[in-house]
Amino acid sequence: MPQPTHAQTPTIQISVINESTVLADADVVPVVAALQKQVTNDFLPVWGADAELGIVPKGTQPPSGSWWLVVLDDSDQANALGYHDLTTEGLPIGKVFAASDLKAGTSWTVTASHELLEMLGDPNINLTVFVQNSNTAGILYAYEVCDACEDDSLGYQVDNVLVSDFVYPAWFEGFRAEGSTQFDRMNKIQNPFQLLVNGYIGIFNVNSGSGWQQQTAEKRPANLLHRGAVGTRRERRSTPHDQWINSLPQRKIMGNAQKYRQHLQTIQQRREAA
Prior knowledge:
The protein has a five-stranded antiparallel beta sheet, with no helix packed on it. Strands 2-1-3-4 form a four-stranded parallel beta sheet.
């Protein structure tokens, strides 16, 4: 059965900013090209959200009105550089922690794909689907398009770059019968709200008073009341929007980035001298 598509929206301009110390711009360029193809060829026909990606050369300002996809080392660097919950203009921002992925043995390119697609699917991190269990009870499901099938083993190649699988709108439609339509790009999911290996989804039981919880494929919820890594979507979803903070001006971020790199060099020199 063909999967219905959503109405298309204007093309979004996304600035890709590489402030990672573990990736050179030359490492990022082919990944951005692959992400552009994924958005245009795979995501746009299903979700109706289009984007034009461009790498911001070091020392230059992101174009006005653009959303940001920022490549960082880890959440400590996100704190140090002053990247917060929104761009300087109050627009959506996504973060990729490349060093954290490398340490964990996971693919930073899958993470980049994940963050990009989820930013396009729910830019304000406030969309949910409500499943009503009774007259007075129900569960909100976070409108995240990659969480259910995010594991690297479930991804696919675009020009030799591994990108994330993502769900189709039918995943959020509880009336769909098993196998009745396509639920994800790789066609691994067979039911609405199904979680694959290492998959998860944010849920909010409206009666429990427990806030956002993380439901895993093993059906063991993990408490999300505490803020997660700085800048992640899960952290921001569990944080009231009136507590979100705009990013610093780009020249201030670049100055902080230089200080951060100098700090890392000092640490390395002290280690070598010890």
